Amino acid sequence: MNDMNVPKSDLKAPQTVLDDLAAELEVLTPELRKAASYVLENPNDVGVSSIREIADAAGVKPNTFVRMARSVGFEGYEDFRQPFREAIRSRGTDFPDRARWLQSLSKGGQLGELFAEMAACAISNIENTFAATDANAMKAAADAIVNARHTYVLGVGVNNSNARNFTYLADMAVDTIWTIPRMGSVATDDLARADKRDVLLAMTCKPYRTDVIEAVEVAREQGLTIVAISDSPASPIVVGSDHAFIIDAETPQFFPSSVSTIALLETLLAFVIADAPPDVVANIEKFHTRRHAMGLYQEEWKDRS
Asked: Is 246 helix (H, G, I), strand (E, B) or coil?
């Protein structure tokens, strides 16, 4: 089994590998049993540790792990740990384990693999997100935003900058879109005067933020239209929302990827501008003309020496 040629879909699940290993325990030699026991008790170490590191931790020689891997049908330790490494790349794994995996790539001189994985994830996330979205759904959400008295854009943690960027760009054209929570405030307080004339655009991915979930619940009780962006149809902010967009946030990183969220928000903003009254064009032109007049833009490099 060569991990470079085995499709992800053909990899055994880590739990299946552990079950196979447990079934072999009684027939293994004492040294192999020692290695196997360490794996069964510390499965998270497999995907993030080199063969030397895990052998030192288990108190055996590195070759013992090679023989242990072969005892359950793998060609060697690298093949054996591939399912565990793939699990670390997946959403369900703890972020600290992902960070350890990233460092293991650096130690093993495998940063080229990391580069390729990051690029593949970014492209795949965008493709999958847009494949699961259609123009009609995007237009319906844009209509709600354009027709709202106010639109509150909520993102915290890694999504806070995404929310603020959406508002920053939208503000060039319309003045009804605000980011929450405001400085020194909490989102639920910022929604105190909101009602059925308003929209809440909220975003969160696993692990879902409690403050975002609570704000969505408050907004729903107050009659706001909910536009939700999340990574699962079962997300607490998606269930019961008026408009929902499911994004792919797959990444080998230790936090959800923002690539597809940003792409989706840029597309939503384009639909908002396309759907808005004609005066938005004049607003955008006035905004940029003013910036040029104030010297905030520089078209070409100038030698200031």
From this structure: strand
- 246 & 133 share domain: yes
Distance separating alpha carbons of residues 183 and 175, to the nearest angstrom: 19
- CA-nearest of 213, 233, 230, 220 to 264 is 230
Residue 118 has pLDDT above 80, yes or no: no
CB 231 within 8 A of CB 182: no
Taken in order 61, 63, 64, 66, the sign of the CA dihedral is positive
Task: Give the pLDDT score at 260.
Answer: 95
Structure tokens that stand for 166 in this block: 């959406």
205 and 269 assigned to the same domain:
yes
Domain assignment present for residue 101? The answer is: no
Q: What backbone phi and psi angles, to 5 degrees, belong to 297?
A: -110, 145
Q: Do 130 and 262 meet the contact criterion of CB atoms below 8 Å apart? A: no
CB 116 within 8 A of CB 164: no
> What is the structure's pLDDT at 223?
98
Is the Cβ–Cβ distance between 172 and 282 less than 8 Å? no
Range with lowest mean pLDDT among 5-19, 243-257, 283-297: 5-19
Model pLDDT for residues 140-168, shown as the tens digit of each residue: 999 999 999 999 999 999 899 999 999 99
Count structural domains, the chain: 2
Half-sphere exposure of 192 (CA within 13 A, CB side): 6
Range of the domain at 55: 8-91
Looking at per-residue pLDDT, the higher value among 145 and 43 belongs to 145
DSSP 132: T
End-to-end CA distance of the chain: 62
The band of 91, judged by pLDDT with boundaries at 50, 70 and 90, is very low
DSSP letters for 197-218: T-EEEEE--SSPPHHHHHHHHH
What is d(CA 169, CA 110) in angstroms, rounded to the nearest whole number? 38
